[in-house]
Amino acid sequence: VIVHDVNELTEKLFPIVEAMQKHFSAGSGTYYSDSIFFLSVAMHRIMPKEITQIIQVDLDLKYKTNIRDLFDEFDNFPEGAVIGIAREMQPVYRHTFWQYRRENPQTKVGEPPPDGLPGFNSGVLLLNLEAMRQSKLYNQLLEPAMVQKLTEKYHFKGHLGDQDFFTMVGMEHPELFHVLDCTWNRQLCTWWRDHGYSDVFDQYFQCEGEVKIYHGNCNTPIPED
């Protein structure tokens, strides 16, 4: 077990992610401490080179299977993919991309699966650090000018940190992501069902198959065995 000092990590992260924080943070400015919410975005820049793969998970998870099985998903990455991530299971990005969707009525952005692009949820992340280091495209997308360009194109203003960045990039470059089955990140939060999206909510929320990981996001209770 290796323990990493959160202050040291933040110090390394801040210059890399400072520019994107204003677009994807809840605060009104760029808070130094917010950088840790973008750890996954630049993990390949701050972890030792000998670490080639990392699984990063939220704390509000319940495992129904051996986490080792999740590592096998790295073998399923298509060429060019650098991150494994499951889709967001609420219409949060249908809401966030409202202006872009209004200007582009035929878009798949924010639409539900299987054909739409509902965005991603970063509760369970497979980071192929070696692929991230070698991907010219991915590293270009970390540049402040590229972040600015995409946020302007999509009229994007979020507050969910790395999840917002991956979602926005995924709209433009889906080839960078290996989409995990919903059973690897079975989100339970239903907040958006009661906040204006009850008519379409179930299209996002449904998940067939035996759940491998429950995600009690927005403080939702996780079912007992």
Please tell me about this protein's structure:
Helix 1 packs parallel to helix 8. The chain has helices at residues 6-24, 43-46, 67-71, 92-96, 98-103, 129-134, 136-141, 144-154, 162-172, 201-205; strands at 53-57, 61-63, 83-87, 120-128, 177-180, 186-187, 213-215. It contains 10 helices and 7 strands. A 4-stranded mixed sheet has the order 1-4-3-5. The protein has a 3-stranded mixed sheet with strand order 2-7-6, with no helix packed on it. The chain is globular and about 45 Å long. The mean pLDDT is 95. The longest helix has 19 residues, at 6-24. With 225 residues, the chain is of the alpha/beta class. Helix 10 (201-205) links the parallel strand 6 (186-187) and strand 7. It has one domain.
How are the SSEs placed, and which strands pair?
Blueprint: H1 6-24, H2 43-46, E1 53-57, E2 61-63, H3 67-71, E3 83-87, H4 92-96, H5 98-103, E4 120-128, H6 129-134, H7 136-141, H8 144-154, H9 162-172, E5 177-180, E6 186-187, H10 201-205, E7 213-215
Parallel strand pairs: 3-5, 6-7
Antiparallel strand pairs: 1-4, 2-7, 3-4
Helix pairs in contact: 1-8
